[in-house]
Amino acid sequence: MALSSTQMTAPSSRLYTDMMGTEVMLPCPPKRIVSLVPSQTELLHYLGLQTQVVGITKFCIHPQEWFMEKARVGGTKNVKYDKVAALSPDLIIANKEENDEKNVNALRSLAPVWVSDIQNLPQALQMIAQIGNITGTATEAQQLLHAIAQAFGDLTRSAPLIPAAYLIWRNPWMAAGGDTFIHNMLAFAGYSNVLAHTARYPSITLEALAALAPQAVLLSSEPYPFAVAHIAEIKQAMPNAKVHLIDGEMMSWYGSRLLLAADYIRSRRWESEG
């Protein structure tokens, strides 16, 4: 039977499995991508997908030119269905932690949704490889993977890990628990997480945190914008702990920013700063 002109010109498709184990049928390669994850948006830019990415969230601040020029579809937790629909995407890229599950499921009626699930550096590298495969940028992704692996392979530390807490919010105080990407990054930075026994991002009082005896408290720049003014508050509760402001993007963004993160960790040497 002869193919119609529509069938002859239709793009080929391929079945992929995302990091949640869900099978996703995608065009090869996608032509209109909406990214719902800031760190993965930055990765898409690094891979050279300037024309293919048509929509991002209001938190996708890197690169700045995309933040200024690309259509915004709401926040990571409250993606606007109508704004995504108006962009006619053929691929939506999401993340288990960053995006609301109900929101993601609703978006599946608009376009295929590929979801990442990342708790450590190996999974971040897996995500980069898979996004390279599904977007037709496998070569660029492999080059990036090699550079990241080399950068983190050079992060060696002979001294024992320093007990530390990584705070992400104030009122209530919240910290990174043991099943987070931040937890894995702390080990590369020379720290052991005193909240490794907890899940995700637990709320905790400063009194309870002090009882865990962290030798260092790290105040992230995101999502709460900790500043110098907050250091005294922590020192009052834990006078013997060193308190440091740290770039949250370097510790929690798991895309191409990992290239910068390794150098950031190496250069800071927080425990020698006094």
Give a quick precis of the structure:
The protein is of the alpha/beta class and 274 residues long. It has twelve helices and twelve strands.
Name the descriptors.
274 residues, alpha/beta, Rossmann fold, 2 domains, five-stranded parallel β-sheet, five-stranded mixed β-sheet, 12 helices, 12 strands, disordered N terminus
Notes on the structure:
- The structure is a single chain.
- With 274 residues, the protein is an alpha/beta fold.
- The protein has 2 domains: 9-147, Rossmann fold (3-Layer(aba) Sandwich), CATH 3.40.50.1980; 162-269, Nitrogenase molybdenum iron protein domain (Rossmann fold), CATH 3.40.50.
- Helices cover 37% and strands 19% of the residues.
- It is built from 12 helices and 12 strands.
- It has helices spanning 5-9, 38-46, 64-69, 81-86, 101-107, 121-135, 138-153, 181-188, 206-211, 231-237, 248-252, 258-268, and strands at 13-17, 23-27, 33-35, 53-56, 71-72, 91-95, 113-116, 162-169, 174-175, 191-193, 216-220, 242-246.
- The protein has a 5-stranded parallel beta sheet with strand order 5-4-3-6-7, with helices on both faces. Strands 8, 9, 10, 11 and 12 form a 5-stranded mixed beta sheet that branches. A two-stranded antiparallel ribbon has the order 1-2.
- The protein is globular, with a radius of gyration of 21 Å.
- It starts with a helix and ends in a 6-residue tail after the last helix.
- Residues 1-10 have low confidence and may be disordered.
